[in-house]
Design a protein that fits this description.
The protein is an alpha/beta fold. The chain is 20% helix and 35% strand.
């Protein structure tokens, strides 16, 4: 019997020099230096998951200070955010070779939570964030800086 581990809202963060979202050949959003954030929302996710992850996102010290040490947050460097919904982050891959998305929230639940995530991130950042197009087939272009790529989930608060 396969046991699916308890995981909740997930974000994949990439420190970038620039990033953009293109849909049907048209650039819909772009940022300069900052963070590209992919958000995966599961069926049991709620406001506390959003509050935890947006706070962690804004305060993560993953930008270099003058000594080259990752000691500054996105707000410290006046960076930008590009937030993209990505249900595939909720994939269960324990059995077989075809990922299962059974844990991903349905669009009618995930869309309001994604919108709330973007709003809370914008409020905490103190400026407008750029976003992908929810549910669209998007092309994401980025120049990863570092590279620095981090994975966070809202149930790993004590690890």
């Amino acid at each position: 019997m396969c046991v699916i581990p308890q995981v909740s809202m997930r974000i994949l963060i990439q420190r970038v020099r620039q990033a953009s979202v293109t849909v049907d050949g048209e650039c819909k959003a772009q940022i300069g230096a900052g963070l590209l954030v992919f958000v995966g929302i599961e069926a049991e996710d709620a406001t506390p998951d959003i509050d935890y992850l947006t706070s962690k996102l804004i305060h993560l010290r993953i930008f270099d200070d003058t000594q080259g040490v990752m000691n500054l947050s996105v707000t410290d460097v006046d960076g930008e955010l590009l937030i993209v919904s990505q249900f595939t982050l909720c994939a269960v891959t324990a059995k077989g070779n075809r990922p299962s998305y059974i844990r991903a929230a349905k669009p009618e639940q995930s869309r309001p939570l994604y919108d709330m995530f973007c709003l809370r991130a914008s409020e905490k950042l103190g400026k407008t964030v750029q976003t992908g197009i929810f549910g669209a087939d998007m092309d994401i272009a980025l120049i990863n800086n570092g590279p620095v790529t981090l994975w966070l989930d809202s149930k790993s608060k004590t690890c």
